[in-house]
Amino acid sequence: MSNQPMTPFAANPFVFIFSALILLAVLVYFGWGALDRAGLAEEEAGAVVTGKRYYPPGTTSRTNIVAGRAWTQTDATSDAYVLELKVGQEPTATAVSRESYDSLQAGDSVRVRVRVHRTRLTRRLEVADVLR
To answer: N or C: which terminal CB in the chain sees fewer CB atoms within 10 Å?
Structure first.
């Protein structure tokens, strides 16, 4: 045995390289999202409500094995109110408050005012706010 000091590469280079790759993947993912969405100019547009979706609250559970014993955890999900809109000829959807959801009807030719922006890289249309 030698008396040389232990370095990160001498112990197990796979762990160091794998950790660096995971960190790089996380930075690329969040960097892409920031570049795609940050600082976009919003504009007002007219939209037609084409549909409504309601997702009720619920719970999901998962079981983990910890020290040889089963450990069950539950996660609560809140309800969600989603409006399907058509802005120009492009369909999109957005989550809204319950009041907005109840006041608008799908299939009506009710035009609503929305604030929208288009992402830089993926060119998706995103609704920032429903103005009514």
So the answer is: N
Query: Which residues are within 8 A (CB) of 111 and not within 5 positions of it... i.e. 6 or more apart?
Result: 46, 47, 48
Position 76 in a domain: no
Task: Express each pLDDT in 45-98 by its tens digit.
Answer: 999 999 999 999 999 889 988 888 998 999 998 999 999 999 989 999 999 999
Using CB atoms within 10 A of its CB, is residue 20 exposed (0-12), middle (13-18) or buried (19+)?
exposed
- Identify the residue whose tokens are 């660096």: 20
Asked whether 79 and 86 are in contact (CB, 8 A), the reply is: no
Question: How far apart, in Å, do the first and last CA atoms of the chain sit?
Answer: 76
Kindly state whether residues 28 and 85 are assigned to the same domain.
Answer: no
Contact, 104 vs 42, CB < 8 A? no
Q: Tell me, yes or no, whether 10 and 33 share the same domain.
A: yes
- By residue range, what is the domain housing residue 30? 1-38
Backbone angles phi, psi at 39, to 5 degrees: 70, 30
